[in-house]
Amino acid sequence: MTPTNFIKKIVHEEFLSTNSLSNSIKQLESKTPNIYILSKNDTVINNIKSAINNLDYNLLGVSSNGDISIEDIKKLNIDLIFISMNLNRDSGLNVANRIIDLDIPIIYILEDNHNLDNSSSENNYWNRYWNNSGNNFKNNFDNNCDYFDNYLIRNYGFILENYDSDEIRFAIDLALKKHTTDSDALINVKNRFKEKANELVIEKLYSVLLLVISITLIISGVVSRNVTFIQWIIFIPSVIMLVLAIFSLKKQKEPVPYDVNPFVSIIIPAHNEEFVIEKTIRSIINMDYKIEGKDNFEVIVVNDGSTDKTGDILVKLSDEFDNLKIMTRKAPKSGKGKGFVLNDALVIAKGEIIGVFDSDTQVCPDYLNKLIPYLNDSRVVGVQSRVRMYNKDENFLTNMQDVEFSGFGNILRAKDTIGFNGFLGGNGQFVKKDAIISAGKWDGFAVTEDLNLSVKLALNGGGIRYCGDVAVYQEAVTNWNDFIKQRVRWAIGNFETLFIYASRILTSKISIIKKIGMISHISIYLFNLFIFIGFVIFIVNMLAWFILDIPTVIRMEAPLIIGIVSAIAFFPGIAISLFRDDKRYLLFLKDLVYYWIYCFHLIPLFFKTMYTMILRKERRWSKTDHRGNAYEN
Description:
Layout: H1 3-17, H2 22-26, E1 34-38, H3 42-54, E2 58-63, H4 66-75, E3 80-84, H5 89-102, E4 106-110, H6 113-116, H7 125-133, H8 137-144, H9 146-151, E5 155-160, H10 165-224, H11 228-233, H12 235-247, E6 264-270, H13 277-285, E7 290-291, E8 294-295, E9 297-304, H14 310-320, E10 324-329, H15 338-348, E11 353-356, H16 367-371, E12 380-389, H17 396-418, E13 429-432, H18 433-438, H19 449-459, E14 463-474, H20 480-507, H21 512-522, H22 524-547, H23 560-568, H24 570-580, H25 585-598, H26 602-615
C-alpha cells in the first residue's frame, strides 16, 4: 500500500468513526465559517478554494508565508485555518505555535501522490517519514514521531487536497464542532477554578469563625472555672458513639454473589514510589479473581510525574504482566492531586467496577472474590474494605495507627448494620463506574477526594457498604512529623467537606438517619477537640484532688447521665475492636490506654489544621512518603 492510500485509509477510518456525530453536526446553528488557507502549493490552494466557494463558505485569505499570515489572521474573524504540510518545518511550527494563542482550529492538508510518493525533494517531510517508518506507519503516525507531534498543534482534522466538497464540508463541520466542545470544556474548567476559589474564601471564613468560637469557649470556661458546655457539646456525638459500639456487635447482612462476576479495573496512583510499587503490583496481580481461567481484572498504574526509578520499574513489570497498563502524567499536569490522577485513569478503565489502591498496598489472593459480592445490590454503589498496617510492630506510632484503623473499621461495620451511610477510604475503595460518573467523578481540587466522592454518592442516593471479610494492608507512617502532615491533610479534607456540603446534606432528600451519620462523620475532628479538652479538664481535676486536696478546679455541672455518657463514650467502640483482634488481656488494656493517650494529639491537630486552612492560598494535595517496609501477614 502506498503512503497516500494508507493515509486515505486512516482519514476515512477517522470519518467513519465519527459518523455518530453527524446528527449533532447537522443540528449546529446555521453559520457561515470564515476560512483561511496557508499553503505554498498552488494546486492545493486552488482545489480547497474551489471546494470552499462551492460550499458558500467565506474564504478570507490565502498565504504561503507564516509570518505574514499571522498578522492577517489577527485582523480577521477567522473560524478555521487550513495548513498544508508542504510548508517548511520552521514556518509550520511557527504558525501552529502562534495560532495556539489565537484559539483557532487547524485542518491539515496532506499532499497528493505526486508529492507523497514520487518526490525526491530533500525537504519532503512525508517522503522521508515514510521511508523511515516502513510498515509501522500508523503506529509511528500516532505515537512515535516527535516532529509530527509538535507539528500538529491544535489539530482538528486532516484532508487530502483532492477530497470532494462533501468530504471537506464534513471535515470543516467536524472541526468546528470539536472546537466548540473544547472551548466549552475550557470555559467549564475556568468556571471550576472560579468556583473553587470562592469555596476557598468560604472555608477561610468558616475556619476563622470556628477557631474564634472554639478559643473563646475554652478560655471563658477556664476563666470562669466552669466547662459544663463541653459536656453538652459532646453529648450527642457521644450517644452516637455508644450506639455505634452496640450495633457493631450485630452481624452484617451477608452479600449475595454475582451470577457472573463483573470485570474490575484497579487504579493505583504512583508518584516516586520506587521502594514499594513492585511489591504492590505483584501482590495485586496475584489476586485469584478469574473467569474461565483468565484474570477478570486489569491494573492501571498512573505514574504521576515520578522523578525516581518508578517509571523504569513499571516498564519492566508491564512486559511481564498482560493485564497491567501504565499511564504517565508529566509536568505541568502531574502532581496536582489524586483526584485528577484517578479521573484520567477512569477514561481508559474498562471495568464495570473501579477499585483504588495506594502504592503501598498488600492484599490476599481471595480479596476480590470476597469483596465484590457486596456490590451485587442495586442500592449499593460502593464498598470499602478493612484497612490495617503491615508494619504495626515497628514502634508506638505505627501500632496506634493500626489500632485506630481497627476502630474505624468497627465504626463502618456498625454503620453498615444500622443504616447509616458508609464512607470510602483512600485505599481499598471499590465503586461502580457509572455511579462515579453520575456523581461528577472525583474532585481533583479536594484534599481528600475519597470523602468528597462518598458524600456525592450518598447525596445521589447511593449506599456504601463495608467489607470486613478481607483487609488491605498499607504502610503506617513511622515518625511524628510525617504523621502530623498526613493528619492535617485528612482533617482539612473533613473540614472542606463540612463547610461546603453540610447545608446540602441537611436539605437533601436522603433519610434523617443518613443525614445524622454523614454530619457526625465529617464533623468528627471538631467534636474530638472538645472530647479531649474534656479529658484534659478531668485529668486536671483528678490531679488537684489527689495532690492538692482541692475537690474541683474546673466545674462540670451537667446532669449525671450527661456527664457519664460524655466521659465513657470514647472507650466501648475501641474496646470492641481490640477484642475482635483477639488481643490478650494485658495487651488489650495496654493498647486501650495507649490509644487514649495517643488521641490527645487531636487537640493540637485541630489548631494546626485551622491555622493551615486560614493561611493557605490554594488547595494543595500532598502525598505520604513510603519507605517499603517488609510486608507481614
